[in-house]
Amino acid sequence: MAYAPTLNLFTDAAPMPRAEVLFTSFAAGTTAVDVYRLAAGREYLVRGGVKAPVAGALSIIDFDIPFGVQVQYRAEMFDASRLSLGFTDSTVVTMDVQETWVHNPLDPQGATTVAFRSNAARDLQRPTEGEVVWPEGRTVGVVVSGQRRGIQDATLDVIVDSIEQADLLQAMFGSYGTRTTPVICFRIGSDDRVRLPRPLFAGILSFSEQDQNYAIGTGEKIAYAITGSEVSPPTPALLVPLLTRADLNAAFPTRAALNAFFLTRLDANRAYQLAGTA
Predict the structure, then answer these.
(1) Predicted TM-score of the model (pTM)
(2) Cα angle 204-205-208, degrees, rounded to a multiple of 5
(3) pLDDT greater than 80 at residue 199
């Protein structure tokens, strides 16, 4: 297929399950691309894939790929004048991960697994803006409506098994020294029978921690009472890279050694095993 990406799936926890979207060629004259992910009837720009500059190839890690549903990727190509050169063909994949993973889209390193509690996602409301009015002379009302909203004020209660998981979940909302956007990406486990979007981006303003057995010393289970509404993710142009130039510099004593080790710049950009070594 013409310029279709190669998809490499990783199910380990380094830092979480993810997909590498690898384009090895583009149409002649392509200098930038927008990379799209289509899943469960919704299309998103892939984070870091917004007018991404290219020189014949591109590798992007998608940390938001949902589980248990068919996912396809493609890219729109642009020339130096930002004129569209059309779309690449698509590549389709389904990622099978049993656990439910959550993360802040702006901090993929802080992801953790959770389990939904039995009361989670039992009542899902998607209200439509509007009202019923009764014009003069009409026996029945007329609906004056707007757009139907996404899920509103859903119960998203979860439980974790360790203090490490609890600390990671708390850090997704910021801390004394850091500030972030309270938008959390829920990637529902493949076999988890909850009727939530895959993925679900939830704006969470109500969030409380409830001890289960930590205080009495018999375990480290912590539950969280969470109420969230479906929102747009932070702009996909914002990206916290997994692999940085500092990582590459830390792994090689000189620039010459780095250049000698990798055959191409694309190879260096895909050396994800060196991520976090700086």
Answers:
(1) 0.86
(2) 90
(3) yes
